[in-house]
Every structure is written in structure tokens, then in C-alpha cells.
Amino acid sequence: MKLFCVAHAGGSASLYEQWKGKMEGIEIIPLELIGHGRRGPMQQSNISMETYVEDLYEQISSQISDTEYSIFGHSMGAIIVYELCKKMQRLNRKKPQKIFFSGKQAPHLPQKNKLSLYENKEFWEKIYLMGGVEEEIYAEKELLDFFYPLIKNDFEIVDNYYEKEPYKLNTPICIITGTRDRFEENEIIAWKDYSSIACDFYKVVGDHFYLKKNIKDTLNIIKQELL
């Protein structure tokens, strides 16, 4: 079983490196978004949702024909994965065994607390308080200035994204959130309308980035769902 993983706004594939080798029978394949991590430079600031989806489609298309696979997307990665799976379903490509949507409200519900409305200093303060930037990076203004265009662009994608109505995927889905994340219960339960088969819900102790700080419980859920 391959598990393709997509990170959050401004995040890189390295988010999932600690998952590798911890689940027998599941191969972790982190997908690097264009402009992020090893696919920089990260100064790019005009990447669209469509570009991300098309790029990920190209990345996985050749890797799914002869194996079972699932997909995991966290935060911005969740809505990118949703759009990717819509595209694959419409093209009648081999469907995933399961789709994991993490740290995101259902796509037809508007984004609250839009971080893209804040400028440089306040923008970084908000992200830091969310746990989205490490303390050593937050202390380095030059690094923040370097990362700012791309990460601001990502949050503009997140804040402006809106699905008119749920699109039912013909795949079971699994919704995971942190116990201290900012979402209302109804915003998470609304994901049930996005699968024609089944929708499971889990909470992991932690904040928006529970998957970095509570790896054991996160992987236990994934193993339970896939094995």
C-alpha cells in the first residue's frame, strides 16, 4: 500500500519524513508541491490551486496503476487532495483505497480568520501562534522575508477557496483533526457529504499541527484504517 502525503500551506514533504518505516505494509510517499522544499526557489508567489493539482496529478499518475494506494492531505493539502481526487474520478483513473482529510473544515464552508488579510509582521505572528513556523525560523527576519511571498500566496489560495456544493467521491474518506484545533464541530461533520461510501472521524490530542507532535496516535489511526 502506498500512502501519498501532501503538506500544509508553506509546508514541505519533509513533514512526513518521520512517518517512514513506522507502519509495516504502508510505504509513505511525501509529495513535494511545486515551489516548496526541494522544489524551490520558494520566492514564487503566483502559483494557483489548478497548478498544484495538475502537478500532483502528474506526480502520482505513473505510480498507481499496479498497486493499491491512499492519499493524505493536511490543511491546505486537504483541499488540494480533494481537488486532485475529483479530477481523478472525473477521468476514471484508478481510485484510492481511502482519502484522509486532515486539519480542514469541509470545502463548501467559508474560511474563517483569513490570514492572508494580514501583512508581514502580523501575518507571521498569526502563523507562529498556530504552530506553523519553528521558533528558530521565526526569530530570523531574513528567512521570514524569503519565505513570505510563497507562503502568503498559499494562504490566499486557502482563504479564497470555496466549493459551491459537496462533490461525492466514490471512495471512503477519513477526517482527522486536533482536539485543540480552531474548527467548530459542524464544520468537520459536514465532510460526511463528500463520500458516497463512508466517512470516519477521529480526533488526535494536539493543535492544528497534531500530526507533528503526536505521531504515534496519528499513525495508529492510519494503520487502523488501511490495514
Task: Describe the protein.
This protein has eight helices and six strands. The chain has helices at residues 49-61, 76-90, 120-130, 135-138, 141-160, 185-189, 210-213, 215-226, and strands at residues 2-6, 27-30, 69-74, 99-102, 173-178, 199-204. Strand 5 (173-178), helix 6 and strand 6 form a beta-alpha-beta unit. The mean pLDDT is 93.
CATH fold assignment: Rossmann fold
The CATH class: Alpha Beta
- Total domains: 1
Q: How many helical elements?
A: 8
How many β-strand stretches?
6
Structural category: alpha/beta
SSE layout and pairings?
Layout lengths: L1 E5 L20 E4 L18 H13 L7 E6 L1 H15 L8 E4 L17 H11 L4 H4 L2 H20 L12 E6 L6 H5 L9 E6 L5 H4 L1 H12 L1
Parallel strand pairs: 1-2, 1-3, 3-4, 4-5, 5-6
Helix pairs in contact: 1-2
Keywords, please?
227 residues; alpha/beta; Rossmann fold; globular
What's the short story on this structure?
By secondary structure, this protein is of the alpha/beta class. The chain has a single domain (2-107, 164-226), classed as Alpha/Beta hydrolase fold, catalytic domain (Rossmann fold).
